[in-house]
Specification:
Radius of gyration of chain A: 13 Å
Largest sheet of chain A: 7 strands, mixed
Largest sheet of chain B: 7 strands, mixed
Low-confidence stretches of chain B: none
Mean pLDDT of chain A: 95
Oligomer: heterodimer
Strand content of chain B: over 45%
Number of strands of chain B: 13
Number of helices of chain A: 0
Largest interface: A-B, 22 and 22 residues
Distance between the termini of chain B: 36 Å
Structural class of chain B: mainly beta
Helix content of chain B: under 10%
Low-confidence stretches of chain A: none
Helix content of chain A: under 10%
Distance between the termini of chain A: 39 Å
Structural class of chain A: mainly beta
Order of helices and strands of chain B: EEEEEEEEEEEEE
């Protein structure tokens, strides 16, 4: 049974870079055909899809965030990561990593990690 | 972007009664090549991640009680919860995966009357 767990700082200063990692257990990123994804949830904007990455490193992301987002994968560690640059208070949210339910660039998500609250504040 | 609009924003239903949540997309979610609607439903309880209930608009995820059902076509979809149980209190979301960016509805809060 695949499980995902987010990790990273819970507090980031404005204008700095948010960095999170999603550790995957119970399954191999490199032996899947999934675009492993990131979704965030803030009180103001609800659930927002950030983007996803294939084990080969191919990525795609939400155009609303694309200029600030980098998603990467490390198959040797069976994890993938998110970097969001130049953060503001509007980036305060619970960040989830999730596995798609089907292959391809569009999909539902199941399962999800437990989520990590990231607060942007000085 | 496809905009997903849920209604109502909140509702209160008595135990044992039926709850109905609607989701409308700004464009059709039907792929004619496979005749599937690219729509999923989730529930979310406080402090927990969303949990998948339904995909392909009407296919129940394994382990989801059969009192949950999804229906609809084109741009209009419905999640129905028959015989409401106390543990069904949650926020419910629809999500389209017809195209990127993947988008979600704003959520519907379901409470017990």
């Amino acid at each position: 049974q695949v499980q995902l767990q987010e990790s990273g700082p819970g507090l980031v200063r404005p204008s700095e870079t948010l960095s999170l990692t999603c550790n995957v257990s119970g399954g191999s990123i490199s032996r899947s055909n999934y675009y492993w994804g990131w979704v965030r949830q803030s009180p103001g904007k609800g659930l927002e899809w950030i983007g996803g990455i294939y084990y080969t490193g191919t990525t795609y992301s939400n155009p609303s965030l694309k200029s600030r987002v980098t998603i990467s994968v490390d198959t040797s560690k069976n994890h993938f990561s998110l970097k969001l640059r130049s953060v503001t208070a509007a980036d305060t949210a619970v960040y989830y990593c999730a596995r798609p339910g089907i292959t391809g660039t569009t999909h539902w998500f199941d399962p999800w990690g437990q989520g990590i609250l990231v607060t942007v504040s000085s | 972007d496809i905009v997903m609009t849920q209604s109502p924003d909140s509702l209160a239903v008595s135990l044992g009664e039926r709850a109905t949540i609607n989701c409308k997309s700004s464009q059709s979610l039907l792929y004619s090549s496979n005749n599937k609607h690219y729509l999923a439903w989730y529930l979310q309880k406080p402090g927990q991640p969303p949990k998948l209930l339904i995909y392909w608009a009407s296919t129940r995820e394994s382990g989801v009680p059969d009192r949950f059902s999804g229906s609809g076509s084109g741009t209009d979809f419905t999640l129905t919860i028959n015989s409401l149980q106390a543990e069904d209190v949650a926020v419910y979301y629809c999500q389209q995966y017809y195209s990127t960016p993947i988008t979600f509805g704003q959520g519907t809060r379901l409470e017990i009357k």
